[in-house]
Structure formats: C-alpha cells, structure tokens
Amino acid sequence: MNDGFVRAAGEIAREAGQFLKHFSDHHRLAVEHKGNDFDFVTNADRESQRLIAERLKAAFPDHRFVGEEDGLDDAAVADILSGDEYCWVCDPLDGTVNYIHHLGLYAVSVGLVRRGRAVAGAIYLPEWDELFTAQRGCGALLNGRPVKPSSCDDLRHAFVTADMAAANVEMRGVNMDRIKRVIMAAGGLRIEGSACVCIAQTACGRQDAYWNLGLHAWDVAAGAVILEEAGCAVSTVFGDPFTFDMKDGFLCAAPGLKGAFAGLMRP
Ligand code: IPD
Ligand code: CA
Ligand code: CA
After folding, report:
1. Residue 69 near ligand 1, beta carbon < 6 Å
2. Ligand 1 nearest-atom number relative to CA 218
3. Residue 167 has what pLDDT?
4. How many domains does the chain have?
5. pLDDT one-digit tens code per residue, 82-132
C-alpha cells in the first residue's frame, strides 16, 4: 500500500493536535450541548475537524471523508465504510470533556478504512507529543519506533482502563456490573475519558486492556489498525470479531488476556 497514506495521517493528526493544544492562546472555548445534557461539543472540535477535512481533501481528492462532527449515525457510517472507496474516518478531538476541564488526556484520531477494514491510521496525543501510527502489514510505531503490547496474561495483574460512554446515560447503567467484576478481578482499573488515549496506551503496553460499550467508528478507525499491527487482540466486548457497526462495543487487550477478559464482559 501507498505509504503516503500513513504519512499524511500522522502529519495531519499532529497539526490538528498542536492546533488544539494552542487553541486557547487565540480563541475563547465555546462549549455547547450536542444530543443531550451529557454530550458536549466545542468550537475547538469543529475547527479541528475543518482543518483535518481540508488537508485530507486537498491530499486525496478521490477519497471520502467522515468526521464525528458530521453527525452521521453508526449504521450510515458502517455502510460507507463497507464500500470499495477509501474513506478517512476522523475524531477531531477525542476526550472533549477532559479538554474542557484542561486535563491533558485527549487526542486526535485520523484513520483510513476500505472494505470494512482499517488500513492506516494515526493517533496523536498533543500534551505528550506522542504520535502513534500504523499501516496494514508494516507494524505500529510510536514517534517512529515499533511498539508492542504488554506480556500480561494474568487478570490479577492486569492494569485496565474503561469508559462509561458518559454521553449515553442508559449505557452507564449497563456497564456497571462489568465495572464491578473488573474491579474485583483485575490489578487496577482507571476511567480516563478518552478512548483514543486508552487505545494508544494499550497498543504500546503501558496498559493491558480497555473496553467501551458506546464507541463509534471515528473513535476506533485509527486505533484498530494501530492495535492490530502492534499485536493486540481487538474484538467486540464479547470477544467476537470487531466490525464498524459498533453494535457490541469495543475491547482491546494484550493477547494473553483476551480470553479471560472477554469472559468478564459477558452479561
Ligand atoms: C468520547 C471519549 C470517551 C468515551 C466516549 C467517546 P469524544 O469521545 O472517547 O472517553 O467514553 O464513548 O464518545 O466525545 O470525547 O470524542
Ligand atoms: Ca471520541
Ligand atoms: Ca470527538
């Protein structure tokens, strides 16, 4: 595959991330509600998406583009992603609530999908200047160096992150039992508020597993190829093959933990 894809993903994710990091030097952050009282969007999310879309459309005029702020639902996005065309799927600011609260756990995600499979992608963590990239068949890199998952294969030692899918109140309740089970079985649990940060940390072995029941394609398009190329297990929360319809959530783990962890996730 053309390695210009992953290079562009990395450069554009970094540019958007640096833009977000310095946004408040030039703009006042305006926070709005999106779907409900718990779902937020800011002018920084929108401006970041505008920048990413502009750059990608200039570089790859024949490719499609889907960004979170386009407001498409999961079924519509899955339908686009199953097609023959290359489609860029981007989250211009993952961890908006953390960003609003000046917490550094946020990221930019730029992924490229074709025929339902992520083929290249980049996740950039602006506060740490960490760029995770991967191209199908070529491994996963952190600032240009290969990464791999942890060797943890014992739940009792697993350092795990989760998310409440905070914008979806019904989902908070559904997740509660799983959170209790993981707290009792695993070495440690954190809820960090950015899917892309958690995915990137799992890919490079700083943490051992992550799950979320309420993600969308833009949260995981880059992450899926980065995780798989690093050597992590990627699946639905039940351990079934992952697809972009996002119906049964998202789970990633060090390969030695996948079976035990998916077992904990069953209702
Ligand atoms: C959200 C974050 C959060 C996760 C949500 C995502 P956003 O993305 O990744 O950690 O729990 O499910 O939607 O809205 O900040 O881009
Ligand atoms: Ca997101
Ligand atoms: Ca977002």
Report:
1. no
2. 16
3. 66
4. 2
5. 999 999 999 999 999 999 999 999 999 999 999 999 999 999 999 999 999
Co-location of 94 and 115 in the same domain: yes
What pLDDT does residue 44 have? 98
Do 47 and 93 lie in one domain? The reply is yes
Q: Rounded to whole angstroms, what are the CA distances from 223 to 41, 130, 244, 266?
A: 22, 14, 12, 23
Domain that holds residue 31: 4-146
Q: Which two tokens stand for residue 227?
A: 């995780």
**Pocket lining: 166 vs ligand 1, CB cutoff 6 Å:** yes
Q: Which atom of ligand 1 is nearest to the CA of 166?
A: 11
The rounded Å distance from CA 41 to ligand 3 centre is 8
Domain stop point among 106, 129, 146: 146
Residue 190, classed as helix, strand or coil, is: strand
Residues 192 and 110 in one domain: no
At residue 166, the pLDDT reads: 64
Q: How far from 262 is each of 158, 186, 238, 240, CA to CA, in Å?
A: 13, 13, 5, 9
